[in-house]
């Protein structure tokens, strides 16, 4: 049985982990003990509590000796981020003055399929999909990209990563896909920001981005993996950027909470629906993921569109809009709030709000014949 970790040891381990993240050669624990003991002795009980809590979490966990403290500190970080996110989203909705403002407010939904080795806590984006929408007009913009990792993936991870991809998205780590990480990253940030990116802010980690909403937890991915994979992409695109900056720009929100806050703002009762089978928040969001036409070309050709990140974000948006419509009479526009069914059984969504839709917008005469 591994020896129990003390709060002081956890304090040393966290300091050593910071050295590694900053690119320094890590000190030995004996060196750290001599250097940091005077600091530990003058720290307050409140300052030491964080490390006592980390030690307790480690001692009560099944962590292996390999990077145990890092795994626990990462869990604590994401736990803190999660509660900060819940507080921020709740306050954001409190500051929306009325339902009309709510209908016009835009949200970005995000899904990432990862190149993953779960045992090593390694996550890198294999596929990124994001959409911007509001309740009034439905979908306005989309982003989608499959990303290759064949040149940089840790070679010892290939077997486990292949097993993961076969299960969740069929994008193998050695497949040839776009891998200009800087161009991909900048294009993704430009979509999120809705405009030109300030490179100074990007390199300093001070870029202010909106919240991106994804599933709090689903099989194969969750908020922590989503955030971790984006941080990996950031560091691959700009390896000179200090590691902590890569962790500071992304704000990942829970789409489950987004739906709950929308319903709360519209004074829709939640408890009764959540007690009925098939009406939990997750059930609402995950409904009807099987349909041709919503996935990217890569997944459509493999006949596995339901594994596609693009299909998932589109269906999340559709399910939110359809559910709100059940209780408010929200005006749903086929092809904008939800996919429209085509004659061949496939589905169609209009991916850009500026695309022409009507005969007048297409500048067609009334006598125009269609094949």
TrEMBL record:
The keyword Secreted does not apply. Belongs to the maelstrom family. Keywords: Cytoplasm, Developmental protein, Differentiation, DNA-binding, Meiosis, Nucleus, RNA-mediated gene silencing. One of its GO terms (cellular component) is nucleus. It comes from the Eukaryota. Residues 120-338 form the Maelstrom domain. The keyword S-adenosyl-L-methionine does not apply. Its main location: cytoplasm. This is Maelstrom domain-containing protein. GO terms for biological process: cell differentiation; male meiotic nuclear division; negative regulation of DNA-templated transcription; piRNA processing; regulation of miRNA-mediated gene silencing; spermatogenesis. It is found in: Cytoplasm; Nucleus. InterPro entries: HMG_box_dom_sf, Maelstrom, Protein_maelstrom. One of its GO terms (molecular function) is sequence-specific DNA binding.
């Amino acid at each position: 049985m591994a020896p129990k970790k003390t709060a002081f040891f956890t304090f040393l381990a966290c300091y050593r982990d910071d050295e590694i993240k900053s690119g320094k050669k890590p000190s030995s624990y004996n060196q750290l003990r001599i250097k940091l003991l005077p600091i530990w002795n003058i720290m307050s009980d409140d300052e030491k509590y964080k490390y006592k809590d980390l030690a307790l979490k480690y001692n009560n966990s099944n962590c292996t000796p390999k990077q145990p403290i890092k795994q626990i500190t990462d869990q604590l970080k994401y736990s803190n981020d999660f509660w900060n996110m819940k507080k921020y989203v709740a306050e954001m909705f409190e500051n929306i003055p009325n339902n009309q403002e709510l209908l016009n407010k835009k949200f970005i939904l995000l899904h990432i399929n990862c190149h993953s080795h779960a045992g090593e806590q390694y996550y890198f984006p294999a596929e990124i999909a994001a959409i911007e929408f509001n309740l009034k007009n439905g979908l306005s913009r989309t982003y989608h990209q499959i990303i290759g990792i064949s040149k940089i993936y840790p070679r010892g991870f290939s077997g486990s990563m292949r097993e993961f991809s076969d299960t969740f998205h069929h994008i193998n780590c050695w497949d040839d896909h776009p891998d200009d990480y800087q161009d991909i990253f900048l294009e993704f940030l430009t979509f999120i920001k809705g405009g030109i990116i300030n490179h100074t802010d990007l390199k300093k980690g001070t870029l202010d981005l909106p919240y991106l909403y994804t599933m709090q937890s689903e099989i194969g991915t969750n908020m922590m993996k989503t955030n971790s994979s984006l941080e990996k992409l950031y560091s691959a695109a700009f390896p000179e950027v200090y590691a902590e900056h890569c962790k500071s720009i992304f704000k990942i929100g829970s789409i489950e909470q987004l739906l709950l806050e929308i319903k709360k703002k519209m004074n829709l009762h939640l408890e009764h629906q959540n007690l009925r089978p098939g009406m939990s928040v997750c059930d609402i969001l995950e409904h009807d993921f099987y349909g041709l036409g919503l996935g990217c070309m890569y997944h459509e050709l493999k006949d596995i569109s339901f594994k596609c990140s693009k299909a998932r974000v589109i269906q999340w948006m559709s399910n939110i809009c359809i559910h709100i419509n059940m209780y408010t009479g929200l005006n749903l526009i086929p092809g904008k709030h939800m996919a429209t069914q085509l004659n061949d059984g496939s589905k169609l969504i209009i991916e850009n709000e500026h695309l022409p839709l009507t005969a007048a917008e297409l500048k067609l005469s009334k006598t125009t014949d269609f094949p």
